[in-house]
Amino acid sequence: MTARIGVVTFPGTLDDRDALRAARVAGAEPVALWHRDKDLKQVDAVVLAGGFSYGDYLRAGAIARFSPVMERVIEEAKGGMPVLGICNGFQILTETHLLPGAMLRNNHLHFVCKDQALRVESAGTAWTADFAAGQEIRVPLKNIDGRYTADEHTLDELEAEGRVAFRYLGGNPNGSLRDIAGISNAAGNVVGLMPHPEHAVEPLIGTGGTDGLGFFTSILKKLVSAS
């Protein structure tokens, strides 16, 4: 059995083809999903890719949250389907309240584009099982609305429950509270992060490394073992 990983394209999505390719490189069957789709085409997991859905009007992810495809994504995620939100996808996940908190404009008010060092804080999610807690990885980062924020109670809860998935190393690039680069829901099937693992799956492109491939091999192994 080959797991089917769906990647959603909204108007303004930029990195859908990269995510589809990453799924293919990992050994999964990539499935393109359109924002107007009400059928998820029997996929086993969903990736919300990076970009500027609907031009980031109102605020990043606010309009995409109401796309027809998101009705099914929200429903399936609550039922346990693995969902990964990358950059704009992370913003959409906070707008849907599948993940807590919100994303604000970078504290320096500039777009940032760089290779970013991260520390894996949790290897207990569906998307991080191929990593080790404490492992350091490097993947591209590119955003202007990447500053993660939440109230102190929520932040303490995320820390206490081991739901901070990734933390920035070597300097905080956007002012995210507690250097948080990515988080998960309580069940561990929904993960969001601002950096772009799909751009670090082959030596020829991106960072020149394959540190991002672990996201896609993690979910593939989970899905295949559960079949």
Automatic annotation (TrEMBL):
SUPFAM superfamilies: Class I glutamine amidotransferase-like
Keywords noted in UniProt: ATP-binding, Cytoplasm, Glutamine amidotransferase, Hydrolase, Ligase, Nucleotide-binding, Purine biosynthesis
UniProt keyword annotation of Cytoplasm present: yes
Pathway terms, separated by semicolons: Purine metabolism; IMP biosynthesis via de novo pathway; 5-amino-1-(5-phospho-D-ribosyl)imidazole from N(2)-formyl-N(1)-(5-phospho-D-ribosyl)glycinamide: step 1/2
Catalytic activity from the UniProt record: N(2)-formyl-N(1)-(5-phospho-beta-D-ribosyl)glycinamide + L-glutamine + ATP + H2O = 2-formamido-N(1)-(5-O-phospho-beta-D-ribosyl)acetamidine + L-glutamate + ADP + phosphate + H(+); L-glutamine + H2O = L-glutamate + NH4(+)
Enzyme Commission number, as recorded: 6.3.5.3, 3.5.1.2
Gene3D superfamilies from the UniProt entry: 3.40.50.880
Pfam family, one: GATase_5
Places the protein is found: Cytoplasm
Source domain of life: Bacteria
Catalytic center residues: 87, 196, 198
Annotated function: Part of the phosphoribosylformylglycinamidine synthase complex involved in the purines biosynthetic pathway. Catalyzes the ATP-dependent conversion of formylglycinamide ribonucleotide (FGAR) and glutamine to yield formylglycinamidine ribonucleotide (FGAM) and glutamate. The FGAM synthase complex is composed of three subunits. PurQ produces an ammonia molecule by converting glutamine to glutamate. PurL transfers the ammonia molecule to FGAR to form FGAM in an ATP-dependent manner.
Assembly with partners or alone: Part of the FGAM synthase complex composed of 1 PurL, 1 PurQ and 2 PurS subunits.
Xref: PANTHER family: PHOSPHORIBOSYLFORMYLGLYCINAMIDINE SYNTHASE SUBUNIT PURQ
Name of the protein in its database record: Phosphoribosylformylglycinamidine synthase subunit PurQ
Species, as recorded: Streptomyces tremellae
